[in-house]
Amino acid sequence: MSELRRDPIIGRWVIISTERAKRLLENKKEFEKTSDQSCPFCMGNENMTPREILAYRETAKPKDSDGWWLRVIPNKFPALKVEGTLNRQGEGMYDKMNGLGAHEVIVESPHHTKQIPDLPDKHVEDIIWAYRDRIMDLKRDIRLEYAMIFKNHGHSAGATLAHPHSQLIATPIVPKRVREEVNGSKDYFEYKERCVFCDIIKQETQFGQRIVSENEDFVALCPFASRFPFETWILPKLHDSDFEDIQKHEAVNLAVVLKDVLGRINRVLDNPSYNYVIHTAPLKESRLPYYHWHIEIIPKLSNVAGFEWGSGFYINPTPPEEAAKFLREI
Amino acid sequence: MSELRRDPIIGRWVIISTERAKRLLENKKEFEKTSDQSCPFCMGNENMTPREILAYRETAKPKDSDGWWLRVIPNKFPALKVEGTLNRQGEGMYDKMNGLGAHEVIVESPHHTKQIPDLPDKHVEDIIWAYRDRIMDLKRDIRLEYAMIFKNHGHSAGATLAHPHSQLIATPIVPKRVREEVNGSKDYFEYKERCVFCDIIKQETQFGQRIVSENEDFVALCPFASRFPFETWILPKLHDSDFEDIQKHEAVNLAVVLKDVLGRINRVLDNPSYNYVIHTAPLKESRLPYYHWHIEIIPKLSNVAGFEWGSGFYINPTPPEEAAKFLREI
Questions:
Q1: CA–CA separation, B141 vs B281, rounded Å?
Q2: What is the tens place of the pLDDT at every residue in A216-271?
Q3: In Å, what is the CA distance from A323 to each residue of A320, B290, B301?
Q4: Handedness of CA A199, A202, A203, A208 (dihedral sign)
Q5: How many helices (H) and strands (E) are present in chain B, helices listed first?
Q6: How far apart are the C-alpha atoms of A170 and A119, rounded to whole Å?
Q7: What is the crossing angle of helices B176-192 and B196-207, to 10°?
Q8: Packing angle, helices B248-269 and B320-329, rounded to 10
Q9: From start to end of chain B, where are the E strands?
Q10: What domains does chain A contain, in order, with CATH numbers?
């Protein structure tokens, strides 16, 4: 069983997960696998994974069989598990609790090599619906405070399997970075009586220089204070704090903009590794007037060095105006 | 000129530095250089660097000549520069200022391949004195709020030159992560009327399981809520918030414990890349009863994946008790 431990100085919770150590050993060479025969996420290998949580498949087929086009399964080496009680306790001056939560894998398609930009719009939309379905389901578990959807693409972005997949981790605490964002937005709202993200969208679309792509419902931009070269955010134009509130027409347009932006990143940066994370409100804090869900995409171009780690202070050699120009004009 | 930009949501300052972009191009293959002839940090190549700020050398020799055993120079591709005015200004809703500050390189010795564990104790002590000398000097510049000393060792830890060196970046703002640490310690102090780091040292030395190494003045331990496998902190036993207050006997013992800990990390993890950062109080907030300077060492063993980036939430597969046992018993 893994354990959640709280740093006594800045209050950051860390997952200490011995299960994951096994993964490091077992999967060391998994990534290089190209044969679809041995890939647990490929069609026909359903018995190589834990039992599926959700799948979109032809109706006649049974669970854990083939015929699916999207499949959600528990992570084989979960950082957190749904079984057990939370059991908050002290250890002298320290605070800890059981590693309760969820850790799931969203296998985005049966194709071993097809990335999001290669899939039909409708299929990418289904990935978005799968993200939403899982959040809606986990929201019913009152022990959980946050559900984070993220994608590690490429080895240097932390992926251990090449087959395209996203992940979901649900935690019994609100992660520190999320709490900072929600609180920071709240401070701005209290001062200005406006959502900071709505203000960003307004200023950026007027200014234009940091815009990457835009459609009816979404805008993609390189943020003013980008931490990383080519960091790109996708924001819904209509204010909403909760990703899972997404409307049908928005899901359609999010699929379009996500494909477009990842395609641009691939062309400009020659298919880099990248991470994206959906930033959304905590599960028990819905419909906030001051928070605005969005997706942050970070291409992995250089190693983050000591200064960044120690300080939370980033040196970005590529101004976002230049990055956006490259991405916009390709 | 680089620019400091503030994220309007969480208030994090980022350096947008176009000078650094040049470095990425120029230094791409610098790291592989083994010939001491072409290394700008080797003895005899003093003309390949900007003019030195400080050097420890035989007294008869002039500045920027050979005969030194430690040398501090400006970074050739500085993220921040001392010239100019701060010039805080708005850009619509955003805040920015000139990239004013300092970015220096501490060339630890003339030896191209000798790492800290390979140097005599006295030489490592001189590295510590050089760190202090530079902080003391920069402290006189009232425009500066923070001086961070850090070391990137190895390519995957962000080093672009192999010759052993540390860096100093001084900033006109207190970095967010530092502010969080100082404020978090203050909250603890207000609640408990004790320094949280002093409490950690007391509990850890009594408990013993997370201790790596210890001498009269310092303790090295793997922290309870370690973010990374084999993360190790070195803390002075005597409370002090400011690294630059270090006493002679402490500098002697810090050299010993630093050599010892880095040597243990090298032996257990087979000479990994690593970063270390000196965490010390802001320049204008000296002698704080609640903050406690220390060094955080982070070996670079695996890629930090999307979950960590997005959430500020870390999954560590190696319990610190196990890491400390390995490091202690080697």
A1: 16
A2: 999 999 999 999 999 999 999 999 999 999 999 999 999 999 999 999 999 999 99
A3: 5, 42, 30
A4: positive
A5: 7, 15
A6: 27
A7: 80
A8: 100
A9: 3-6, 13-16, 54-57, 68-74, 89-91, 94-98, 102-107, 146-153, 165-171, 211-214, 218-221, 232-236, 274-279, 294-299, 314-316
A10: 3-173 (3.30.428.10), 177-329 (3.30.428.10)
CA distances B160 to A100, B153, B165, B328, Å, are 41, 9, 10, 31
Indicate if B165 belongs to the active site.
yes
- Spell out which residues of chain B touch residue A172, defining contact as CB-CB under 8 Å: none
Q: Does B291 touch chain A (CB under 8 A)?
A: no
Q: Which residues of B touch A176 (CB under 8 A)?
A: 311-313
pTM score: 0.93
Instruction: Give residue for tokens 């030195």.
Output: B52
Residue B153, Cβ neighbours under 10 Å: how many? 26
Q: ipTM value of the model?
A: 0.91
Question: Residue A218 is inside which H or E element, if any?
Answer: strand A218-221
**Residues of chain B with C-beta less than 8 angstroms from the C-beta of A15:** 313-316
Is residue A276 within 8 angstroms of chain B, CB to CB? yes
Q: Using the beta-carbon criterion (under 8 Å), do A152 and B276 form an inter-chain contact?
A: no
How far are the Cα atoms of A117, B132, B258, B325, B329 from residue B264, in angstroms, in the given order?
Answer: 46, 25, 10, 11, 9
